[in-house]
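FIELD: query
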Amino acid sequence: SQWLDYDPATTEHDLDLAKRLNLNEVRVFLAYQAWEQDKAAFGEHVLDFVRACHRHDIGVMPVVTYPREMIADKAKWPLAREWAEDLVRTIGNEPGLAFWDVLNEPDWPPTPAPWVRQRFEFAKHMAGVFHELDPRTPVTIGMAFVPGMEELADDVDVLEFHDYSPTRGQIRANIARAQQFAARVGKPVVDGEIGCIARAHPYDVTL
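FIELD: result
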């Protein structure tokens, strides 16, 4: 795990490059399994990363991840709350923290339908947990598609969708739909993932 094999010098180097590109936000995944393996080291390293980002005027959107079996079993949801509690204790008061992304793409893959519904329910639950534990930091859910973003809009402060459409026309249409919906509900919207040759984007679109 990057969080257990963390190198502050590499982080500083990468953030210096990011500033040269005028980047102002970073979205990083936080793995439950790494935290469970060594909670002290994990917390120390995540805190160092968030503070390094702040020194570079880069905000941090942590994406909180969970084992599949935890999402599937409601009896294990209290473990997800313990995970959230420790994250909030560790970085909840850091000025470099910009958002909590409480679950990545509960709408992907789109089948089987019962599993998607379970992930949606878990996403709504964790949005409530983070709102309770940290009322100051905006909460989002990184949805794979705009319709899913619309469905969970009431549970977040910032709307988020991802787009790996193969054409500029599809990308623009999705952005337009997301912007129109965001204007109707009065919430900010962000495309949290875009640009990947290995999925569907042509090389020039990715650039």
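FIELD: remark
The chain has nine helices and six strands.
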